[in-house]
Structures are given as structure tokens and as C-alpha cells.
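Apologies for my clumsy wording, but can you show me some protein sequence, whichever is easiest, together with the matching C-alpha cells, please?
=====
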Amino acid sequence: MRNILIIGAGRSASSLIKYLLEKSDAENLHLTIGDLSLELAQRKTGNHHNATAIAFDIFNETQRHIEIERADIVISMLPAHMHIEVAKDCITYKKHMVTASYISDAMQELDAAAKANNLVFMNEIGLDPGIDHMSAMKVIDEIREKGGKMILFESFCGGLVAPESDNNLWNYKFTWAPRNVVLAGQGGAAKFIQEGTYKYIPYHKLFRRTEFLEVEGYGRFEGYANRDSLKYRSVYGLDDILTLYRGTIRRVGYSRAWNTFVQLGMTDDTYIIDDSENISYREFTNLFLPYHPSDSVEIKLRLQLGIEQDDVIWDKLLELDLFNPNKKVGLKNATPAQILEKILSDKWTLAPNDKDMIVMYHKFGYEMNGVQKQIDSKMVCIGDDQTYTAMAKTVGLPVAMATLQILNGNIKTPGVQLPIRKEVYLPILEELESFGVIFNETEMRYVGYNPDKM
């Protein structure tokens, strides 16, 4: 039996584990699923005869060494900052490794050692990063092979609520880490290239600079800029491209409403609110408003932000219970961002029967034989249920597929890497289609970049 060690049995591992277990008899696999919660790991095995659940503490060095040495390949579904000790052990015991996380500087430093030991350390093989890399490089490579020159690349991705479960005014629910949603866009200005010119959007302007997107059958969406759109410029071989922009997808109207929290200061994570556990939601909201002897909290907020009473933004704020005097925050030593996350989680947590949705949208502008053309590539994936969500499918399945491809010797190139080579992306994208992860490509006349829209 070939032993696959999976570290971390959270929601993102559900589809990954299911896929590998379904292949386990034919592929001679045994899965060791380790998590701090033995109960969680046991649930994910489904009592399958080719799976063993263990209580696993990543900080238990002896246990970590034993389990990694036993494995033929290691999948780390831990938080990104925890991968590095696993990776070092994989070097020591000469084991391949797969993660869905961004390549950190510490991970990149292991590249030479991985190559020297002929080890594949596949990173960024989830959704975003992951499927975005693979689907983008497939089209970019095809354009280049036909003799085309890339002049524009825009890429958008969003985890959303499926239409049948969309029942709030924000058209949004948490499908992934709520904290990341609250802190989105912070830590520096968004940076991209537009028609050969560098552009920057500071955080306090980010949610008022959006781009509209149409997806057939699903309606209209908006995208706001990611913090650094240029991170993959050289990786994708797009150093000479005129326009490069990466963004996050939401339903139209979300960003304008979210901007109210940014302007108030509720997304700030740098200081602690005094006596935070005892204040009400209404008192929390009032902390960011000026004193007035007679105006209510509601009136002060509308006046400060210029929100009319018949504006849909006002209805969205009311829907969140921001002015409720009876609900307590209940969090000790909490920052504004942590309190806002708590308030939003009351309303935006997926219900047991809710389904989530992933939307990905790429735009490729290119020139060939003196003619400018554009390809739009769109993918929508709907979750099955609360275990096999669209997010779990699109994060976990590429990880599982890459793991099996490495085990079977189909992915051979050693080193710390992301999935931008044909030996990686072609078979995985093809197999993903059988799971409903399908990109529909449309070619049209290149429309360029409208300087008024950004």
C-alpha cells in the first residue's frame, strides 16, 4: 500500500479525502488522516477500510517525524504558517509534499534541497491560488503557441452564496474564513497595471473602484482589486503586458455597502476596544460616531456617511442588527475587526441547507497577425451540501489530483513550485471537468480597457 499522510481534516479536506478514498482500491492507497481533533479525523474517514484517523499535533516533533517517515507523500492542509516544519521534515525523510497555500519565502528557500533530493513540493494547487493558475496558463500558452502576443490579463475569483440560498440583502454569506473577508484589502494599496501605467488604489478607496462582470445564467457581479495584481507577472511570463489586474468577485452593490464599515473604522484590527465583551452592538456602532445631545445613533450614522433613509445600503445595515441595544458583543479584548466579524457571523453563516458558489472569470487580450482579440473564460461551481461545498471541491480536488499524479510519476519536475506547467495543469483541468469545474471560453473582438471604469 502507498501511504498518503493528510495533515488537517477541516472543511477544505472533505472533497480531497473523498476523492482519494474512492481511488484507494484501484490505486493501492492508504490514507492516514491526522488532526488535533481525533473525532473530526474519524468523521472524514467514513469508516473506510483504506483510512486511519489519528490525533495529530503538528508541534509534537516525535510524532511528526514518525508519521512523515511512514508516508510516501504528505498533504498539508494546515494554516499556511504551519507548513514549513512539515516541509523540512519532508526534505529530511525524502517525501513529496502538496499544499494549497501560497509559496512563502521560507518554503521557497527549500527549493534547492527539494531539487537535490528529486522531490516535488507542489504549492498553490487549490482554488485561488491553484485553479486560477492552471486555467490561466492553459489559455496563455495556447495564445502563445498560435503566435499571439498577450496585451491584457484580468482575473477574478469569488466565494459566494449560491442563487438558491441567497436570501439576504448583501447577496453574500461566509463560505471561507470570515476574518479574511473582514480584513480584505488591508496592508497596502492595491497595485496593478493599466495600459502600461502603474495604478494604485489606497485601502480607503478600494471598495469604490469596481469593475462589472456578466456571467451567463448567473447575472451581474462586481470585482474589486486584489492587493498585488503584479505578483505573478513574471511567473506567467507577462513582463511586457500592458494591462494586468486581479480582483475579488462579489454581487453588485456589496462593495459600496462594505465601504461604510471601512469609512467608519470598523475593519481596523490594530487596537483593542475597552470592555468589549460587555458592550452592545448599538454601543459598538456608536463608538465610531460623534457625540450629539439629541440625535440617535441611526441619525448620526446616516449624517456622517451621507446615507439617505431610502438607500438600500441603509436597509443592509439594519439587516445586520448593528443598532440592537440588547445583543452583546461577548468578546474579551476584541479589536473593531473582530467585533465586526462576530456581528456579521450572526447573519452570514451558511444555514445547514445552504449551498455555496465559486465564480472565476479570466479576460485575455492578445494581438495576432495585426488583429487584436479577446478571450473570456468563465467558471461557476455550485456546492453539493455543507460538507462537500463548492469551496471544498475547488480547493481539495486539485490537491488530491496533484498528489496522485505525483505518486504515479506523471508530475516529475522537482522543486518548490506552483502548477503552471503543462504536465500539471492539463490532466488536472481535464479531470476537474468531470466534477463540474468547467471553464467556458468565448472569443470576441478586443475591447481594450476603459479608462473611465477604474
User: Anything to note?
Assistant: Residues 390-407 form the longest helix (18 residues). The chain has 15 helices and 16 strands. The chain has a mean pLDDT of 93. The longest strand covers residues 149-161.
